[in-house]
Description:
Blueprint: H1 3-12, E1 18-22, E2 35-39, H2 45-57, E3 61-65, H3 70-78, E4 83-84, H4 102-114, H5 121-130, H6 132-142, H7 156-163, H8 165-180, H9 186-205, H10 212-220, H11 224-228, H12 232-236, H13 243-249, H14 257-268, H15 271-281, H16 285-304
Parallel strand pairs: 1-2, 2-3, 3-4
Amino acid sequence: MNCPDAVARLKAAGYGLALDGVTAREDGLGRLADFLIVDLQNTPADLMQGLAEQAKSLNQRLVAAKVETQAQFEQARSAEFNYFQGYFFRKPKVIAAREISPAKRCFLRFVQEVNRSDPSFERLENLIRQEVALSVKLLRYLNSPAMGLRHKITSIKQALHLLGERPLKKWASATAISFLGQDKPHELMVASMARGRFCEVIGSEAGLTDLEFDLYMLGSLSVLDALLDTSLRNALDQVPISPDVKGALLGEQTPFSDVYQLALAQEKGDWTRMSELAHTIGIKPDRIVKVYVEAVTWTERCLAI
C-alpha cells in the first residue's frame, strides 16, 4: 500500500491528520491533512495568504507555529489562521518604565487583597464595587446553572459570604487575571488558567496536599509578566504569594518547581523531559496529557461564564 492510500484509509477510519513544518502551498499528502502547521519563521509573508485560501477551499485548519512577535501574531490572525503557538505566548513584550493602567491597578489590588492571610470581605466588597465588570462577573458566576443555587444572589456582600474564603480566592484570582488580559490574545488567558488548573490537579496528585490554591497561583501567575508588559520579577513583587511559588516561577528550586516545569514541558511537547519529571514527582506519564486536556476544557468553560 502506498503512502497516499494509507493516509486516505486513516481519514476514512475517522482519524484527524496534521502536517507539520508547512512553508508553502501543499499538494499530494498535504491536501489530505486536516491541520496544516505553518512554520512562520520560514514562511514568506506573501505565501501566508495563499496558504489560508488553500486551507479554506479544502476545509483545513491552519496552525501558526513559532509565533515569536506581536507582528507575527497579527499577521497570522489577519490571514485567518485558526490556532497559534510559540514563544510570544510565554514571554512578554517588555517596555521599560511602562506604567500600569489605573484599571489594571484596581485588579491588582483585588488580587493582593484576596491573597492576604486574613482577607477582609469589607475591603473586597469596596474593590469590587469600584469595578462594575467584577461585580457583574461575580454575580453571573454564582447565578449560573453550574452553581445550582435555589435563590438568586443580588448583592456583593451576600455573594462573598456565600462563596467562603478558599473558593473566593480561586474565583477572584482567575477573574482578576482574565480582566488583566482583556487587551491580550485570548490564547494567553487560556494558557494562564489552564496552567493554573493543571498545576493544581497534578500537584495534589503528587502529594502537595492542602496547597491547591498555591498550586493554582503557580500556573496562573506564570504569564503575569505578559499581562502587565513588565519583567516577571517586577510583576510578582506586586502580588503577595508564597515564597516557594514565587521562587519556582523565577527559576529557583522549591517544592513547586517540578510541577511547574512539568506544565511547561507538556505545553512544548518535550516528552523526554515530561517522562523524567513524571517519574520524579510520582505521576504516570499518560495521566499528564489527560489532566491538561481537562484543564483546557475547564478553562474554556470558566471563560464562557
